Amino acid sequence: LSSTVCRICGQGDPESDIYGPQCLSSGIHVHTFCAAFSTGLLQRATIENRTVKFRFEDIINTIVQATQKCCFICSERGASIDCAETSCERSFHLPCALRGECVTQYFGEHRSFCREHRPQQAVEVLPAQDTTCAICMEPVGDSKSFNTMVCPACKHAWFHRVCIQGLALRAGITCFCCPFCRDRGAFLLDMDIMGIRVPARGSTWEDNDAYAALGERHGRCDVSECLCPQGREHVNLGGPWQLFLCSSCAAEGTHWCCSYSSIIGTGTWECSTCAGVGTG
Fold it and tell me: What are the UniProt keywords, alphabetically (predicted)?
């Protein structure tokens, strides 16, 4: 193997955000996350100057033990990652995880799960046949699958796994949120559990304000006849000028007073584009 190839997964540096930067220990190169997901290795590591350090002998033992295991996805030896389900005997390589529909959780104990035991999203309603990805605008299909995900907060935003992973890598933890409703709390927690890697850094666009509006919540009344005497941008936290965002797209809003007949009884509102012209 080349001296710059990870001795655990056998690959170079294909995607540093997914595999992590290579670390060097006594002349042995390994990807940070290949080591972190390897069974038992992270628990024996130490932290020095905010950097995870793996002992040389622990890395050697991990490599030797991995040579005894076959990846259930590619059938090659060197599988250092075990499914976290105690009754499961499946092992796999980190580069094979996505292809094998496995979930690797980039937080806490860095647990990994095979496709049979991976966590599942609590999906109440399957996407309609013509539903498109909120990021690439291509169809997501009409069934639940490993490759499609939904926002746990608004339950309207569907996206491909690869698309939301790409967004997470660009946004970083400071700007990552649902592309539709802008929820961060429930959304970030669910994406973490489902194996989306969210880097602990700012966004790639933070050096300029070109995309600053992407992280802002819509803040004006958009109905054809706004009744607020102080204008469409005047918004209160409660009362007649409380703003309700469209429950489907969150891209348009209305004051309670401007659409009270639609809001009473449901507590929600849909814009004319999403509900049909004349009904918003």
Answer: Metal-binding, Zinc, Zinc-finger
Closest CA to 110 of 188, 32, 162, 9: 32
Which tens digit of pLDDT belongs to each residue from 46-103?
A: 777 666 677 888 888 888 988 899 999 999 998 999 999 999 999 999 989 999 999 9
CB 141 within 8 A of CB 154: no
End-to-end CA distance of the chain: 63
- Determine the Cα–Cα distance for residues 262 and 274; give it in Å rounded to an integer: 14
Residue with tokens 């005497």: 229
* Cα–Cα dist 173/166, whole Å: 13
Q: Residue 190 — φ and ψ, nearest 5°?
A: -65, -40
Instruction: State how far Cα 213 lies from the chain centre.
Output: 20
Whole-number Cα distances in Å, 10 to 40, 65, 83, 94: 19, 15, 20, 10
DSSP string, 98-119: TTTT-EE--STT--EE-TTTS-
Please tell me the distance from the alpha carbon of residue 185 to that of residue 120, in angstroms, as a whole number.
Answer: 18
Residue 105: phi and psi, rounded to 5, are -100, 115
CA 54 to chain centre: 27
Give me the amino acid identity at 19.
Answer: Y
What's the pLDDT tens digit per position in 213-260? 555 678 899 999 999 989 999 988 778 898 988 887 778 899 989 998
Domains of the chain from N-terminus onward: 22-113 (3.30.40.10), 120-216 (3.30.40), 217-275 (3.30.40.10)
Task: Mention every residue, 6+ apart, whose C-beta is less than 8 A from residue 231.
Answer: none
Q: What is the DSSP letter of 188?
A: H
Burial class (CB in 10 A: 0-12, 13-18, 19+), 126: middle
